[in-house]
Amino acid sequence: MKRDIVVIDEKKCTGCGLCVPNCHEGALQIIDGKARLISDLYCDGLGACLGHCPEGAITIEKKEVEEYDERKVMIDNIIPAGANTIKAHISHLRDHNAMDFYNTALETLKEFEIQNPLELEAKEEAKSHQHQHGNGGGCPGSKMMSFGTQNKTEATGNVDSQLTQWPVQLHLVSPQAPYFKNSDLLLAADCTAYAVGDFHSKHLKNRSLAIACTKLDDGQDIYVEKLVSMIDNNNLNTITCMIMEVPCCGGLLAMAKQAVAKAKRKIPLKLIMVGIKGEIVREEWV
User: Fold this and answer.
1) Are residues 87 and 180 in the same domain?
2) Which residues span the domain enclosing 59?
3) Is the peptide bond before 167 cis (omega within 30 degrees of 0)?
């Protein structure tokens, strides 16, 4: 039988995510920095997502297709795309109560000796819950603390935002965006804006912005490539990497170093490290 199928050009796709909310069937997700059709079973082929791809990466093609075969889809499309796509696909089947397909998917994973990622996630959550009941174990950056509000200086009057662009999350920004051209980039860990009282007035002012969290974000391989593209194709002047002092935040600096080393153009990289109480503990050119 012939039916319309959504086709995604991964080379054109920047992972901006504009197509996802326009797929009412929930068949599209951003995984590992690219839009992926996680289940052609739920794709109606009407192309509601087409008009929402600024890169022209999504097309509709009429193809001769066989009757839907969950095992074949798992082997040909889902498993080769990696663990994140496997997790998204079986979650999609479970959430839509397609239990026959869901069970077939799990049987296929077992056949290829791949552990069910939903079971792995449940085990990790259980471990995390156990660690949270004591001070031992777990990431130091997750340890609960309270600082109080003593001797805090209050700003007088309205404080203007220094943000000059949107979006700001590194997965969502396009490295070719005009606001990055010839700019000084502030590459900030998510938590820094909440920890630093003068984040806008002192650090963001006159800079472009990209934010990320190397502890929680998925698909970080695309981050380095985006930064390299900003440096080489949009002529970034400098990168200032602002991170928290907790160990899990160091990955953002490592990623910035990797991008600067990989880029053809050589630009300065500055580190600003923020303490958990909002003070600047280190500021230096790397």
Assistant:
1) no
2) 2-120
3) yes
12-42 confidence digits (pLDDT tens): 998 888 787 666 456 778 888 888 887 666 5
Q: Are 156 and 209 in contact (CB under 8 A)?
A: no
176-230 pLDDT, tens digit each: 899 999 999 999 999 999 999 999 999 999 999 999 998 888 777 789 999 999 9
Tokens of 172: 């969502």
244 neighbors 211 (Cβ within 8 angstroms): no
- Please state, as a whole number, how many other Cβ atoms lie within 10 Å of the Cβ of residue 71: 13
The answer to whether 257 and 269 have CB atoms below 8 angstroms apart is yes
Domain count, the chain: 2
Q: Which of 194, 193, 190, 149 is nearest to 171 (CA)?
A: 190
